[in-house]
Amino acid sequence: MQDRRRIVAGGLPGVGKTTVLAQAAEQLKKRGFDAVVVTLGSFMFEEAKKMGVGDRDQMRRLPVPQQKELQLKAARKISEMNNDFVFVDTHFFIRTSEGYFPGLPLDVLQLLKPTQMVLVQAPVKEILGRRAKDASRERDAETEGSVEEELMLSKEFLVVAAATTGATMTIVNNRENRSDEAVRDLVGSLNLRP
């Protein structure tokens, strides 16, 4: 059996990252691997509920020090997982009232110990279209320009996180109605032994 892998995957809301990761984990399970997808934000939200936070969108409105503490608690729990493949579904940054805040500050990255950093991306117009269809989340109004800026920041974060941790980095394109290609590219990047 190969060494355990921790794949930290980020992407803008609406890029389809969660779908791609879930399908990749399913493919690995079919090959006999113990693969799981965990969402950093869900682990954070479980802790935030203890502070009276009612939904995930309220978390990004918490003061940055509180958000950072939630990130650390979530990362500690995830770091204890022993699956063959742990896909960590997250965002590389969070827009706060104080500006952009790293979704994975250095101490959080060090706890997670990623073996691979992945950015799932899609064309800006597709991202905006997917967000418009998602009534389950409370989103700020955005323009193509703001999404382009966020995509650029995500790519820059990917490089910094990989350089800081020594993890490899992969960019996966998730085009509309072509998630199977994104999943194929992601699983292919894992360089699995037969």
Kindly describe this structure.
The model has no long low-confidence stretch (mean pLDDT 89). It is globular and about 50 Å long. The strands form 2 sheets. The protein has a 5-stranded parallel β-sheet with strand order 2-3-1-6-7, sandwiched between helices. The chain has one domain (5-189): P-loop containing nucleotide triphosphate hydrolases (Rossmann fold, 3-Layer(aba) Sandwich). Strand 4 (93-96) and strand 5 (99-102) form a beta hairpin. The protein has helices at 17-30, 40-49, 56-59, 64-79, 106-112, 124-133, 144-165, 179-189; strands at 5-10, 35-39, 85-90, 93-96, 99-102, 116-121, 168-173. With 194 residues, it is an alpha/beta fold. The protein is built from 8 helices and 7 strands. The chain starts with a strand and ends in a 5-residue tail after the last helix.
